[in-house]
Amino acid sequence: MRRNIVHPGAGSLAYAIREIVQVGYRFRDLGMDITWENIGDPIHKGEKIAPWIRQIMHEVVDDDASWAYCDTAGVPATRQFLAAHVNKRGGAEVTPDDIIFFNGIGDAVAKVYGFLRREARVIGPTPAYSTHSSAEAAHSGYEHLTYELDPYNKWMPDLNDLRMKVRYNPSITAILLINPDNPTGAVYPREVLEEMVAIAREFKLFLIADEIYTHIVYNGHKTLHLSQVIGDVCGLVMRGISKEVPWPGSRCGWIEVLNRERDEMFNTYVNTLLASKRLEVCSTTAPQMCVPRILGDARYPDHLRQRAAIYEARAKEAHAMLQGIPGVQVNCPSGAFYMTILFEEGVLNNRQTLAIRNDKVRQMVEGLVQGVTNDYRFVYYLLGAKGVCVVPLTGFCCRRDGFRVTLLECNDAKRRQTFQTLAAALREYLGV
Question: Is residue 226 part of a domain?
Answer without folding.
Answer: yes
